[in-house]
Design brief:
- By secondary structure, this protein is an alpha/beta fold.
- Helix content is 42%, strand content 16%.
- The chain folds into two domains: 1-124, Transcription Regulator spoIIAA, CATH 3.30.750; 127-279, Transcription Regulator spoIIAA (2-Layer Sandwich), CATH 3.30.750.
- The chain contains eleven helices and ten strands.
- Residues 11-239 form the Radical SAM core domain.
- GO terms for molecular function: catalytic activity; iron-sulfur cluster binding; metal ion binding.
- Keywords: Iron, Iron-sulfur, Metal-binding, S-adenosyl-L-methionine.
- Its cofactor is [4Fe-4S] cluster.
Length: 292
């Protein structure tokens, strides 16, 4: 396939076919993110999308799952997403799921009726970056939504029977705030009931606004021990028996994953072991968060 620039997809979509339908991110203002800094947002043409599907058909006998890139592909208007879904069904009628990143503002722009129409065409499993359940934190990192908006829009997805995966971030609240942030985030997640929780850890990349804050001292990173305690507190406060917790992101120093209803205690015990045996000097020498 011919992709423009670096494309990103969630870890869980490693085996999905990636179809580029847009370039960049419409918001592109989160203070911790530089993934789309060099891209000006635009929508790919249907002609180009169909050419990629024709090419894919030459190489793949069947495709059951397709991930649409770029940064917030769900921003596309409903009719365009429907056209893309129908085009996918034309070349790969066996395709069961069409998934993508979606922001809270993307969802807000679509009615429940429109969401149901998209679900009928196979659009499901939307990845939504909520990052935190704290309005103060969301405002600081310029996420573009409030906690109230997140709850309202994710409840719309639930009503439309569209699965959503909540992406959250340890350490995003800064030094000394991890426990409070974990409890607020757990409260939000308990309300919206995601299918999967994807948990990563903040890495401050050079060139971002957050990096500038780190350099001038207006933002202080949480130490790794606090990140581990934040994750433990988060899991302890989650009440979602059927939800899968994915804490295996490359930025996480301790990998934990499982269904919360049956694996919660084992994940907590693993984190407790890491906390009890944590060595800051060894961590500093052996673990680096430098790039995605």
């Amino acid at each position: 396939m011919n992709y423009e620039g670096t494309v990103y997809r969630p870890p869980l979509e490693a085996n999905s076919f990636l179809l580029q339908v847009a370039i960049g991110c419409t918001h592109n203002k989160c203070t911790y993110c530089n993934m789309y800094a060099e891209k000006c947002f635009r929508v790919e043409s249907l002609k180009k999308i169909e050419e990629d599907l024709k090419l894919a058909k030459q190489y793949y006998k069947t495709i059951e799952r397709i991930f649409l890139v770029d940064g917030d592909a769900f921003v596309l208007k409903t009719e365009l997403l429907k056209s893309i879904a129908l085009m996918i069904k034309k070349y790969f009628p066996e395709c069961k799921t069409i998934t993508m990143y979606a922001s809270i503002q993307n969802i807000k722009a679509k009615t429940i009726e429109k969401l149901k129409e998209l679900k009928e065409l196979g659009i499901n499993d939307l990845y939504v970056g909520i990052e935190s359940g704290s309005d103060e934190v969301l405002a600081h990192v310029n996420k573009g939504h409030t906690v109230k908006e997140a709850i309202e829009q994710l409840e719309k997805l639930n009503e439309a029977n569209i699965n959503h995966m909540s992406i959250i971030m340890l350490g995003i609240s800064g030094k000394g705030n991890g426990i409070e942030n974990a409890k607020a985030t757990a409260k939000l997640l308990n309300n919206v009931k995601p299918k999967i929780i994807i948990n990563s850890t903040l890495s401050v990349f050079e060139g971002t606004k957050l990096y500038e804050e780190l350099q001038n001292g207006t933002f202080v990173e949480a130490r790794e021990l606090e990140n581990l305690m934040e994750e433990k507190t988060l899991i302890e406060n989650l009440e979602l028996d059927e939800t899968f917790f994915f804490g295996n992101h490359v930025f996480n120093s301790t990998s934990v994953s499982g269904i919360l209803g049956k694996d919660k205690e084992s994940m907590i015990k693993k984190l407790e072991y890491s906390i009890e045996n944590f060595d800051e000097d060894v961590f500093a020498r052996t673990f680096k968060r430098t790039q995605l």
